Amino acid sequence: MDYSDIQNDLQLADNQTLVDKAETSILEFFSEQHYKAGDVIPKEMELAANLGVSRTVVREAILRLRMRGLLDTRKKRGTIITNPDVLSLLEKNLYPGILDDKTLRNIFELRMVLEIGMGDLIFERVTQKDIDELYRIVEQEPSNTEEMIFDIDQEVKFHGKLYEITGNDTLARFQQMLLPVFEYVHKSGILRKQVVQKRFVSHRGLVDVIQHGTPETFRNAMRNHFENHFQRIF
């Protein structure tokens, strides 16, 4: 590599650093000016003048923000701020087979923590119709589910219904992303610790708690429901 190549590489690195800073500065500018979704942003030249960088840098930063779903260009309006789909990038990149073991373990733990903690939402919003549907779901399960560590079909049906009951769309989408990771980790051999306790609160037991219990008893029951998984982690 000759001197000119080195100069070009350094120039490219400097430009990337400037774009990184400009990207952050543009978002801070929008916040300071109280821009909201649907608002038209200033032209590139105006932003460049406000930020003290070149128009080229601003253009690249805006392109990045557009790729992140934060900006969009509309005919006869210009570039506007959008309400970003905060989970879309995660959905597109969450492939269990290419993630390292630490990340997989973290996601595995995340799903359990979410479900243990959503008792208050469930008890606030559950209806008797929901409970009846949960009972219908567990009627299709084998009688020894309290001894089964994982069955993906029943996990999707039962836990998917719990997420639906919360009324929280973000949680429901998380479930769609996390369950495949949960299954992958379960089958991958990452969790090598032997399980001592073989029985735990079944899906039917959780429904009984929702029918007759409290958010606190639900949290305890869900924690016990995941006991075998926790033993494999710690």
Short description:
The protein has 234 residues and is mainly alpha-helical. The protein is built from twelve helices and two strands.
| Order of helix and strand elements from N to C terminus | HHHEEHHHHHHHHH
Tally of strands: 2
| Biggest sheet layout | 2 strands, antiparallel
| Count of all domains | 2
CATH class bucket of the largest domain: Mainly Alpha
Assembly form of the protein: single chain
User: Total helix count?
Assistant: 12
Write the layout of secondary structure elements.
Blueprint: H1 3-32, H2 44-51, H3 55-67, E1 71-74, E2 78-81, H4 88-93, H5 101-117, H6 119-125, H7 128-139, H8 152-166, H9 169-188, H10 203-212, H11 215-225, H12 227-233
Antiparallel strand pairs: 1-2
Helix pairs in contact: 1-3, 2-3, 5-9, 5-11, 6-8, 6-11, 7-8, 7-10, 8-9, 10-11
